[in-house]
Design a protein that fits this description.
The chain has helices at about 1-35, 40-55, 55-70, 75-90, 95-110, 115-120, 135-145, 150-160, 170-185. With about 190 residues, it is mainly α.
């Protein structure tokens, strides 16, 4: 009798969870349809509100969407705060936190922030086996390139070319950027 009761409780709880997830899915889909044509500021407000109300995966998706909308609206402070909050959430799987770190670094590149600050945010993504490592390397190399640190950029682009996990497209982009770095490193003909 105890085992039957336990099984009934587990089955009932799973059914309850499934119905809650289905309901959250419908609410999220309705929200996306509602804000589809809205400006980024309105999208930010609606997605932020939804993220606060939902303590599930759809709330997380809304939080990512809100941070993205803030960035699109030029509110880099709110975007960075949103991505940093997601990166700090211990209840999220590491790939989700890493993706939030990556997005925060992109916001910082757009803000023309310190390359060292960007490097600090991306540090965990450089771990061996991290699927986001080639993208993180590309973003950091771009940050160093724009911050007039071509030697660091060259090293990262060279690493990208040698990385077996990097996609052909990211290697092609690294080759193009490496050419640009070499131009930057060449002594100016005006100095002669």
């Amino acid at each position: 009798v105890g085992i039957v009761l336990l099984v009934a409780i587990i089955v009932g709880y799973r059914a309850f969870q499934q119905s809650q997830n289905e309901a959250a899915s419908l609410r999220f889909e309705a929200l996306l349809q509602q804000i589809g044509e809205e400006e980024a500021g309105a999208q930010f407000e609606a997605l932020s509100s939804f993220a606060l109300e939902e303590n599930n995966g759809y709330g997380v998706l809304a939080a990512f969407g809100a941070a993205r909308a803030a960035a699109e609206n030029g509110d880099f402070t709110a975007a960075l705060a949103g991505f940093d909050a997601l990166a700090a959430r211990g209840d999220l799987a590491r790939p989700m936190r890493d993706y939030a770190r990556l997005q925060a670094a992109i916001v910082l590149v757009n803000q023309k922030a310190s390359a060292d600050d960007i490097a600090a945010r991306l540090a965990r993504l450089f771990d061996e086996g991290n699927a986001l490592r080639p993208i993180a390397r590309d973003i950091l190399a771009l940050a160093y390139f724009t911050k007039d640190a071509p030697l660091k950029a060259r090293e990262l682009y060279s690493d990208q070319l040698a990385d077996p996990d990097a996609t052909p497209f990211s290697k092609q982009r690294a080759q193009i950027m490496l050419s640009e770095v070499e131009v930057k490193l060449r002594p100016s003909s005006q100095a002669e």
